[in-house]
Structure formats: structure tokens, C-alpha cells
């Protein structure tokens, strides 16, 4: 059973989400919160698998709550609710550790599938939407220590040339199958490389890997990636 915490300052929306979620035999709503601070208390007490998080709330907003949850309760994954597919609030929540975002206009079946996907450890962001968000907000991202060209970030230096190639493809929004076709390797090999990239960048999913790539200077706006030997 996948447990879910609903966080939204609008009671009617929480009620609607509850009705949709609890119609599924494998999903259970274990609690609700109307702001980020209450959400933190609820997560500490209930340990939900997934937190369905609105980002625009009075008091502690969903961005700060997501940041705190990622640090204090990493086993509870956050799925952000947003109004627009390219939204600065949703992007800030992704940078803070959310595993994906979903439009509030999503169909009921999309909501329950997104919850299941996040609970399984996979991110819920269309790769090309993430790329569009990154290109839009990249000028405002901090860069990693020393920059890519200096090669000072140990996470950068830990990547092999092939892993850097895979990260470049991830930043372009390619799926594992598309990466395998481009690099002429098997999907199993790509999956292994993706796992290595996540481990070496110390992130938990593809969304966080691509965001980290921009912040560390591994990938520049437009998708060009630093690789060993490039200066």
C-alpha cells in the first residue's frame, strides 16, 4: 500500500484529491495539511511514501517545506502540484528536492499514475519540459565550486567520459532507449550508467541529476556538456 499526504491550502482541492486517490486499492491518504509547517509535522508523524505538495501556500510555502523534507525525511518523496508546466515555483521546488510535478488540471488517472511512479523511485517530469525549464531558469542558477573548466568539483571529476555522454543525453531530455540508440549500447548498459551518474552526483533521480549538472557547470544552457579533456 502506498501512503499519501495531501498538502494544499484549499480544502475543496484536498477533498477532490482524496476521493480520486482512495478510489484506488493500492493507495491510501493518511493525512492532510494546509501549509508547509503542518506538513513537516505530519510527515514526521505519519511517514508517508508520497507527499502531494502545493507550492503556493501562506505561511511556509511548498518550496521551503520540500527543501526541509528532502533533508529531514528523504524517504518521503514529494510530487509538486502546479498551475503551469513551466513555473518558477515548480522549478524552485524541483531544485529543493521534489521528485516531479503535476499540473492541477491533470486527469484523475494521471494523478494516481504519477503517485505510483514517484513512490517507485522514478521522477515525474517530462524530460523535454525539464529541459525547457532549465533553459529558461539557467541564468539564475548558482554554479558549482570552481566551474566545470577548472575540474575542481570532485563530483565532476568522478564521472567517466561515457557517463558524461549519458548525462549530456539526459540533459537533452532523451529516454534510456533514445540514449542507447544514440550511443549504440544496450538499454541495460544505459541504465547502469544512469545509476552511476546518480550515485556520483549524490542525487536520487534524473530530475535532480540534470539540475545538478547545470549547477555544477557540467551542462551549459542549450545542453552542451563538459567532458574530460574539454577546457
From TrEMBL:
Pfam family, one: GerE
Gene Ontology molecular function: DNA binding
Key words of the record: DNA-binding, Phosphoprotein, Transcription, Transcription regulation
Occurrences of domain HTH luxR-type (ranges): 152-217
Stretches that traverse the bilayer: none
GO biological process entries: phosphorelay signal transduction system; regulation of DNA-templated transcription
Listed name of the protein: LuxR family transcriptional regulator
CDD domains, alphabetized: LuxR_C_like (cd06170), REC_NarL-like (cd17535)
InterPro entries: CheY-like_superfamily, NreC/VraR/RcsB-like_REC, Sig_transdc_resp-reg_C-effctor, Sig_transdc_resp-reg_receiver, Tscrpt_reg_LuxR_C, WalR-like
Originating organism: Cellulomonas cellasea DSM 20118
Domain Response regulatory: 3-119
Modified residues (4-aspartylphosphate): 54
Amino acid at each position: 500500500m502506498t501512503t499519501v499526504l495531501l498538502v494544499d491550502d484549499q480544502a475543496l482541492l484536498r477533498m477532490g484529491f482524496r476521493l480520486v486517490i482512495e478510489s484506488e486499492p493500492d493507495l491510501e491518504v493518511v493525512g492532510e495539511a494546509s501549509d508547509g509547517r503542518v506538513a513537516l509535522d505530519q510527515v514526521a508523524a505519519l511517514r508517508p511514501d508520497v507527499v502531494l505538495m502545493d507550492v503556493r501556500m501562506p505561511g511556509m510555502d511548498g518550496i521551503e517545506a520540500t527543501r526541509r523534507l528532502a533533508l529531514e525525511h528523504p524517504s518521503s518523496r514529494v510530487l509538486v502540484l502546479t498551475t503551469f508546466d513551466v513555473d518558477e515555483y515548480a522549478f524552485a521546488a524541483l531544485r529543493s528536492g521534489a521528485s516531479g510535478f503535476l499540473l492541477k488540471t491533470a486527469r484523475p488517472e494521471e494523478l494516481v499514475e504519477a503517485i505510483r511512479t514517484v513512490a517507485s523511485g522514478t521522477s515525474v517530469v517530462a524530460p523535454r519540459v525539464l529541459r525547457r525549464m532549465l533553459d529558461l531558469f539557467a541564468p539564475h542558477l548558482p554554479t558549482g565550486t570552481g566551474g566545470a573548466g577548472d575540474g575542481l568539483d570532485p563530483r565532476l571529476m568522478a564521472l567517466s567520459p561515457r557517463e558524461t555522454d549519458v548525462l549530456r543525453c539526459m540533459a537533452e531530455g532523451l529516454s534510456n532507449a533514445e540514449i542507447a540508440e544514440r550511443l549504440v549500447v544496450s538499454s541495460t548498459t544505459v541504465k547502469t550508467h544512469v545509476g552511476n551518474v546518480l550515485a556520483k552526483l549524490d542525487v536520487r533521480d534524473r530530475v535532480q541529476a540534470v539540475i545538478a549538472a547545470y549547477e555544477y557547470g557540467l551542462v551549459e544552457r542549450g545542453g552542451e556538456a563538459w567532458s574530460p579533456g574539454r577546457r
